[in-house]
Amino acid sequence: MKAFLVAGLAFGDEGKGGIVDALVRRYNADLVVRFNGGAQAAHHVLDDQGRVHCFSQFGAGHFAGASTYLSQYMMVEPLGLQNEADHLCELTGQDPFARLYISRYAPIITPYHRALGQVREMARTNKHGSCGMGIGDLAADLAEPTQLNVLRAGNCMSRQLAVYELEKIREQKHAESKTLLPNYNHPLFDLDPLELFSRYESILRQARLLVGMPSAARAVFEGAQGMLLDEWYGFHPHTTWSDTTFENAEQLL
Asked: How many CB atoms lie within 10 A of CB 122?
């Protein structure tokens, strides 16, 4: 495999989407790998046909014909993934899921993570500036040794396991939100875990879930955010809950 690794050297917004698209076209790469961050990415691509898309979870080489692999280091949000796929289908006339691979170990951002993150921001006197997508709360769960509140993509194929884990996550996140704002109930906590499982299963079955990386002759590894935001090397408190260096990409390779 010939691999190109793309990462931002600043705080994000360095044009990674356009660079990934250009690399895929120039070197005829057949795979784009997301190796960090989550569904909060906003990588804009304008192609030579005038099509414009803000790539959030699908790789920014999609217009150029590359498949996408969401690795175990990528926080996946299935409902947003479906919305993005719908827009790409409108633009291309093709099913984006036909070229989407997802690691069975990829952690899932649930609406309950999103709800707690939004409540946490509402409760702050000095606002943190959260994107409100649950990234930080899922990352905190991933940092726990037991990872009890982490639902993986592969588990979404089992009704009994997924519903059990979703119920557990909802209960824990709802209880924590009540310690922050006792008189407020976020509407996302009203989502039924069984209904949520049904939607997740339907969405994720359209992609191909893998244990390891798919084979590719040439791959572009698409980073999210910038290295000055790195959770370990960035300028705290202006950091993200993600390793924005090449570490994860090198582990995958």
From this structure: 15
